[in-house]
From TrEMBL:
InterPro entries registered for this protein in UniProt: HATPase_C_sf (IPR036890), HATPase_dom (IPR003594), His_kinase_dom (IPR005467), HisK_dim/P_dom (IPR003661), HisK_dim/P_sf (IPR036097), PAS (IPR000014), PAS-like_dom_sf (IPR035965), PAS_fold_3 (IPR013655)
MF terms (GO), sorted A to Z: phosphorelay sensor kinase activity
PANTHER family: PAC DOMAIN-CONTAINING PROTEIN (PTHR43304:SF1), PHYTOCHROME-LIKE PROTEIN CPH1 (PTHR43304)
Domain of life: Bacteria
CDD domains, A to Z: HisKA (cd00082), PAS (cd00130)
EC number, as in UniProt: 2.7.13.3
PAS domain: residues covered: 25-74
Protein name, as recorded: histidine kinase
Gene3D superfamilies, alphabetized: 1.10.287.130, Histidine kinase-like ATPase, C-terminal domain, PAS domain
Limits of the Histidine kinase domain: 143-353
Coiled-coil residue spans: 109-136
Enzymatic reactions: ATP + protein L-histidine = ADP + protein N-phospho-L-histidine
Length: 353
């Protein structure tokens, strides 16, 4: 078959990408229908005016600079610039071009990437907004932890002034000691948070081998007054996996939030029960935290449960931050979290390390 047997003209006209032949003088010499369709000008209008007339004014200088390289037999690859259509819309084109210096022609093909650029800009905006919110949250956490130390220290000073020997009621003495231990635990946690926030960002996600029983016991000490007041039962079994490689402070936050939620959203007529256990599946460690609390309607909350400022039970202390933090800790470490819940039955969280 000869070249005449191939319908090159048909190919040129039907290709949806922008095909053009331009002269070194800066004018179109041949264009396919896609060029007219995208730029909204007739072929006569496009042939009669310099190409620079259609380019966004801010991109003309850059385009001329890259075009001059074509005149030196250098191909143009991966070049993006903006054009203005006849109706005034700004569009982005992605160019590849080859020069023919003998005939002083440039053969070029372009794709419209306006939507792609819009999505990239939107992504950059979202990332910037997320970064800003993360910095605000970090600052708020630092301020909160720092400012809470003063009243906590004041409470501990009051305990030092108390003479427990003068208090005859043993139950009152035990209650005072319990409050004192809880306050000391709060102070230790605040100091840990401040120390963590003071570290360099590069060390914020530092991982180490963490004993799950130790983390659980520290969590139970922190929650002890609340657990006692509602007669909560906590059962655990870490026989399959007793240690995980994870950031210690973040793991403490995960335990505190998930167990704390089990107590916060308990049923009023039943003592809360929380079962915690681990499994190893396909060399990954799964941590389960199951309760017999109020549960949730998963059809209503499944797309919101781990987002910021989402609350589902109308609890006065609910702020919609805890599960967001849990999910963020896990995602930053390459893990994930899943949830199963039924109203009136309870909730099970599955943490995947």
């Amino acid at each position: 078959m000869t070249t005449e047997d191939y319908p090159f003209e048909l190919f040129f006209d039907l290709v949806p990408d922008l095909l053009c032949i331009a002269g070194f003088d800066g004018y179109f010499k041949r264009i396919n229908p896609a060029v007219s369709k995208v730029l909204e000008y007739s072929q006569e209008e496009l042939y009669s005016r310099p190409i620079n007339d259609f380019i966004h004014p801010e991109d003309v200088s850059m385009t001329n600079q890259r075009r001059s390289q074509l005149f030196e037999s250098q191909p143009l690859l991966n070049f993006e610039n903006r054009y203005i259509t006849k109706s005034g819309k700004i569009i982005w084109l992605y160019w590849t071009a080859w020069p023919n210096t003998e005939k002083k022609l440039v053969f070029a093909i372009a794709k419209e990437i306006t939507e792609k650029k819009r999505l990239e800009e939107r992504k950059d905006e979202l990332l910037s907004d997320l970064s800003h919110k993360n910095e605000e949250l970090k600052s708020l956490t630092y301020i909160t932890a720092h400012d809470l130390r003063s009243p906590v220290s004041s409470i501990l000073s009051v305990f030092q002034l108390l003479n427990l020997e003068k208090i005859k009621d043993e139950e009152s003495v035990e209650l005072i000691k319990l409050i004192q231990r809880s306050t000391l635990g709060l102070k230790e946690n605040l100091n840990k948070y401040l120390n963590k926030l003071s570290e360099k960002d590069s060390n914020n996600n530092k991982k180490e081998l963490v004993n799950l029983s130790e983390i659980l016991q520290e969590t139970l000490i922190t929650l002890n007054p609340t657990l006692k007041s509602v007669n909560a039962q906590i059962k655990h079994d870490f026989s399959q996996a007793g240690e995980v490689y994870f950031n210690r402070l973040h793991l403490e936050s995960i335990f505190l939030n998930l167990i704390g939620n089990s107590i916060k959203y308990r049923k009023t007529d039943v003592a809360p029960q929380v079962c915690i256990w681990t499994e190893i599946v396909a060399e990954r460690i799964f941590l389960y935290i199951k309760d017999n609390g109020q549960g949730m309607n998963m059809e209503k909350v499944k797309d919101k449960i781990f987002k910021m400022n989402q609350t589902f039970h109308g609890h006065s202390e609910a702020k919609g931050i805890g599960l967001y933090l849990v999910n963020s800790h896990l995602q930053n470490a390459g893990g994930s979290i899943e949830v199963k819940s039924e109203e009136g039955v309870g909730t099970t969280f599955k943490v995947i390390f």
